[in-house]
Amino acid sequence: MGRRPIISFATSKGGSGKSTCLVTLAGVLADGGGRVAVIDTDPTQTVARWGERTGRPGSISVYSAETEDALLDAIDEASSKHHVILIDVEGRASIVGNMAMGKSSLVIVPVQPSEPDGHEAAKTIRAIKTAARAHEREIKFCAVMNRLQGAIRSRAYHDIVAQFQKGGVPVAASLIDREAYRRVFLEGGTLWTLGVNREDQRRPLEKAQREAYIFGEEIGRMIGLIRDGGGTAASDAIADSAPDTFRKAAVVDLAAADGETIDEAVDRRYEELKIEKSA
Ligand SMILES: Nc1ncnc2c1ncn2[C@@H]1O[C@H](COP(=O)(O)OP(=O)(O)O)[C@@H](O)[C@H]1O
Ligand SMILES: [Mg+2]
């Protein structure tokens, strides 16, 4: 098998949702039939601990690598057996973190709708550009708006999205603050292996799955895991030399339609994607 796409999750703002976004993406890609390697380089080892819990699908492998050599070894070992490699990067600047970004085809920057998050995201994007220069290769990047509060799109959300748009930073997806994302870390497994203990958990879990699915589709398109207008994460992840279908400035504003809540927008986008894929 050829070189596998590597996606890093980075931002200098702690608690933005790097590990949450990584585990969510691993879950959706695995649910689509992909084999996913996850490498935790963050000393907090949040993802490594998650990997030790029960429920993790066999198609997701977890490596812990806190040094440069360990990271290179993990990438070498993972490449032959997986379709995609996801790397969790520690918040503060580090050699391992720079190496992870330098190896990546895409760096995902999770951003909560707050001024400090927006500020650190901008700093992180400058660091990604520096890594691209240093490694003399293209490194794509995108923001993911995380922990949005229910139906309300705050002033900070609009400000940050507008700034990203102006600066040519694609916003790949928006994730709402949902209990299901926390349950994945507490209980292990993915959004697709979590059971429902109570009937009233069913609908919120389904919402999270739909939201994660949209996230997975957008990321897949950005790095050519999924071709525009067709193919699932599964079938196309398996294509060895997927075409580059990165859509520049693909700002997916889930909140586009007037008077629509984010939850309604998730359902709308989910249905649109289903129709696009069956066309
Ligand atoms: N979309 C979300 N919904 C609910 N909780 C979230 C969400 N994103 C992050 N969290 C919670 O916020 C905290 C920090 O997230 P985490 O992914 O660990 O951030 P980081 O890896 O960037 O430090 C964790 O407790 C996590 O469960
Ligand atoms: Mg983390």
Summed up:
The protein is an alpha/beta fold. The chain has helices at 18-31, 46-52, 68-79, 95-103, 115-135, 155-166, 179-187, 202-222, 233-238, 262-278; strands spanning 6-9, 36-40, 60-64, 84-88, 106-111, 140-148, 171-176.
Give keywords:
Rossmann fold, 279 residues, globular, binds adenosine-5'-diphosphate, binds magnesium ion, 10 helices, seven-stranded parallel β-sheet, alpha/beta, 46% helix, 14% strand
3D architecture notes:
- 48% of the residues are buried.
- The radius of gyration is 17 Å and the shape is globular.
- Helix 8 packs across helix 10.
- Helix content is 46%, strand content 14%.
- Strand 5 (106-111), helix 5 (115-135) and strand 6 form a beta-alpha-beta unit.
- It starts with 5 loop residues before the first strand and ends with a helix.
- It has a 7-stranded parallel β-sheet, sandwiched between helices.
- The chain has 279 residues and is of the alpha/beta class.
- It has a single domain (6-278), classed as P-loop containing nucleotide triphosphate hydrolases (Rossmann fold, 3-Layer(aba) Sandwich), CATH 3.40.50.300.
- The structure holds adenosine-5'-diphosphate and magnesium ion.
CATH topology type: Rossmann fold
The CATH C-level class name? Alpha Beta
Instruction: Tell how many strands the DSSP assignment holds.
Output: 7
Discrete helix count? 10
Rg from Cα? 17 Å
**What are the secondary-structure elements, in order, as H or E?**
EHEHEHEHEHEHEHHHH
Number of domains: 1
Q: How would you sum up the global shape?
A: globular
Q: What topology, given as strand order, has the largest sheet?
A: 3-2-4-1-5-6-7
Note the main sheet: 7 strands, parallel
> Mean pLDDT, nearest integer?
85
Spans of at least 5 consecutive residues with low confidence: 226-253
Unique ligands = adenosine-5'-diphosphate, magnesium ion
